[in-house]
């Protein structure tokens, strides 16, 4: 799996996502991250087919890593089985490189409900079935805590290969990251830029900008992505312009010093914050 990819959350406009995916592939991205809940799989499938048909692109399906995810409303064995088949159809592919359970819970249930555990176990059994068939090349989860991952040891014949969670200096996921590394689970960070809020020079975390000032050769976005990469996480930033696509991808070519990493690690003590879903209280 590539260490940096294109995230596509909140990009639903058909023309925009088609353009962005084609531009991303043209500048060097090889990982495209989507989900059934993003409602853009069809546009991504069209963009991929257009790219494969272009002789100048010189790309085929095997060159691309596709990640998609099971929505909370699709949980359960039958729901997950149907969802995978629908994703295959929309993405116009006969296999998905990585398929994740997007959230450890189901809708319209109290956070304490035992139904969450029952349904995610059934969903996992469906993922295992499609993995064994070769239709899904790797399987994993998203937004799972250590508690949820430990529980999987009771029912998973195939351990999760990936856990995709919010991660940035204000939400470093230190314990979860260490657990995943210890258990051979690849960690993928989403919201590396804090849903772009961390790039705003207003008052969310002024220390980030003071740290960034020490590296005028890098943008703050690049610094945040490099921080994630150097913590051995894959990153999937979204972008809508070719300039930002190129900027984000170039983060792979740089390093932060030990002192710079320590300074970024320390920001959370003052400014701890989630920008996205927090699964801590899901039973």
From TrEMBL:
<feature type="active site" description="Proton donor">
    <location>
        <position position="38"/>
    </location>
</feature>
<dbReference type="InterPro" id="IPR018170">
    <property type="entry name" value="Aldo/ket_reductase_CS"/>
</dbReference>
<dbReference type="InterPro" id="IPR020471">
    <property type="entry name" value="AKR"/>
</dbReference>
<keyword id="KW-0521">NADP</keyword>
<feature type="binding site">
    <location>
        <position position="102"/>
    </location>
    <ligand>
        <name>substrate</name>
    </ligand>
</feature>
<dbReference type="GO" id="GO:0016616">
    <property type="term" value="F:oxidoreductase activity, acting on the CH-OH group of donors, NAD or NADP as acceptor"/>
</dbReference>
<feature type="site" description="Lowers pKa of active site Tyr">
    <location>
        <position position="69"/>
    </location>
</feature>
<keyword id="KW-0560">Oxidoreductase</keyword>
<dbReference type="InterPro" id="IPR036812">
    <property type="entry name" value="NAD(P)_OxRdtase_dom_sf"/>
</dbReference>
<dbReference type="Pfam" id="PF00248">
    <property type="entry name" value="Aldo_ket_red"/>
</dbReference>
<dbReference type="InterPro" id="IPR023210">
    <property type="entry name" value="NADP_OxRdtase_dom"/>
</dbReference>
<feature type="domain" description="NADP-dependent oxidoreductase">
    <location>
        <begin position="4"/>
        <end position="267"/>
    </location>
</feature>
<comment type="similarity">
    <text>Belongs to the aldo/keto reductase family.</text>
</comment>
<protein>
    <submittedName>
        <fullName>Aldo/keto reductase</fullName>
    </submittedName>
</protein>
